[in-house]
């Protein structure tokens, strides 16, 4: 043996050495190694630190149940070393330690361990204030570090449909896939490992009269040759969902959505430990993991082994260890006597077996150096060793079965929860509690056929090794405060008892209080141990304790895989204006608003953003400005029942609207909450053009379709979103009418012929257009809608028409200036002045709702006691007492008891008034006009007067 690597054996390619670095150390492994097996073979004992107390941690398991070896791989945090395939040049390191795993300054917290039991944060940090402690706790929290600048590989999404999905390619899974394929069914076999075989990769046996390795090779070749069989290697099934949907991720990059007529769960079983004092020392490992590293990767966990067990299966580890030429100090068996093939084989190999004994504690600091054994009489003795293999039995991996609706039952014969009734999956083999090789093969074969009779197809034949009884043992002895249950989260046997004593007897409450099972391994090896200890502490049997919920995903999955190709523009496409290039040429500063890239403002060279916004707003009030309003939602609603339909969708009656007229209205959801607003135009007897907010265009169109397709199927209405078909240029300001006339139009523009809140159709600058008299600025405004492709042409024509007509050039203005203008006028902005609690009456539309006697969406909710109670927040204006004081959106109105009486919803510096103004949602605001209140903005306070929410042109004369 060189180091901890056996000279022969293992499923590694010794002709392909791979250099890698761990925590700055240069090491060498082989192709076929995992990072964990390469570290073990290199003699690395400490691979990380625990989360809470920063105790040294060594490898504990060999698969996804590993709680200790959580590593950082470049920019990728919190990976399990047992699941990372070794590659040339790989660089990794432990997480949650500084400056390193061998010496971690954070371990000093262990000195305060007695003050930091489970749930300590619920009972401490009350002085001086939680806000003082919270930043410290947040900095201490977490494991690995996320690199926000790193780019993850792009994932993919794929779908599969099959007759039989087999999850797991161990003996039972292989038998199921072979049988289903032989029956002519479409089969998908998903295996999380890179190799098929499961336990056959570790344990030797005989199947169909041949060595298990040879049988496995033939079985794999048979499956690969079948066209109707798909093998997914390195594929972890994440969860089983409703209606038979199974999600899986392949190579951490491809997410599969699989629909199968039948799902066979062959996920095997997970070994669990037995707790004893200081059992978290590096070198204490699961017996099955010691055997897996030895046989599959030719890596010895140490040189002198003590095996501690309560069952026969673990004897395989000691036997294989001895056959590898290594020293077995003793097998410590908690049972009074041991009979059977495996104990007999151990005796034949000359291995010392101590029955009716347990381990009291492990010795050593950086690594286990020995154990203290306690026999049935209470006498203790010391055994030197550098490796302790522990086995407390095996728990069927039932997470997917439960996710699919299955129920569990406790089985005393194996001291574990096993699948019971329910669900749409069929557990087989070890996943069903059948641990014998022959039983697993026969069980899988039967599940693959599902009752079909296929001539000449027989189950693979193998013998079940005789198994003795298991002794249910959870805590062997020693100090409960130093006997570990969840190694990752530092949960001890004492913590379990304390949680039970404090009333956390529900498994879900216990889990969250102690954080047991909430680390990256999700308690795969410690779950049943913890629940059994909870049962012991509360005087309940395991069946009465139950289990926690097995939520997907079964194993951590990279977010990049779930995202797939949906990132950036492919996730949330940002739309561009048809005249985007024209605005860019004008120097627009673009920002995203409602899914559109729009000009926020048009700063001149050397001009700041705030100065540009004020200049634009003042120019609109004094002359004329141009604004691109194309993103405002536009939905064409037509049909004989269009009017009736819109009456039900909005708070105003729109069926009474005459052709050629406009009406502003609000839309509410079923809870009565304001969700959108807009201006509706009646284009004809059976046709309306419904305006929405920019961000609400898609949402409202989908709402229309949902109500028509699901509720009001009797209405003959056709809904067509047309937002992107139209470009809209808004002319706003006292000179708007003159500019529009100068551009050339056949529409009569005088107020008598074309009043506010009407629209006309005709030619503008030679372009067919629909012109609407509607304003969001408080100024005389014309919205000119033309085909989207001619928006820039219209903009240019309007700009060019000013000079010859003796009009000052129109000033382009952006969203921010528009917001200033609408705040000055007191116009509502849904989403800024409203939130998820705002009813129409809160923002001044109570009379409209009260006049409606027919039903519409949200009407019933608007009449509930909470909607009409005294003390609701109402939209009002705020004017600071000091002329130079500035209001800020989000600032709170201070109540008499120093609580909140409301908040500032919108605020700006008004160029028209030369001071700050704002809109606010204030408790009983409309009844408190002229009252002076205190406004608090993150500790900065000012006095302001509640006024009507109109600061400019309260009579509306400028609109005419």
Automatic annotation (TrEMBL):
FAD/NAD(P)-binding domain mapped to chain residues: 163-414
Keyword match Oxidoreductase: yes
Origin species: Stella humosa
UniProt-recorded name of the protein: Sarcosine oxidase subunit alpha
Residues in Aminomethyltransferase C-terminal domain copies: 874-953
Highest taxon listed in the record's lineage: Bacteria
Keywords, sorted A to Z: Oxidoreductase
Tagged with keyword Oxidoreductase: yes
Residue ranges constituting the GCVT N-terminal domain according to the UniProt record: 580-851
All copies of domain SoxA A3, residue ranges: 482-562
Membership in a protein family: Belongs to the GcvT family.
Stored Pfam families: Fer2_4 (PF13510), GCV_T (PF01571), GCV_T_C (PF08669), Pyr_redox_2 (PF07992), SO_alpha_A3 (PF17806)
Entry's Gene Ontology molecular function annotations: oxidoreductase activity
Record-linked PANTHER family: AMINOMETHYLTRANSFERASE, AMINOMETHYLTRANSFERASE, MITOCHONDRIAL
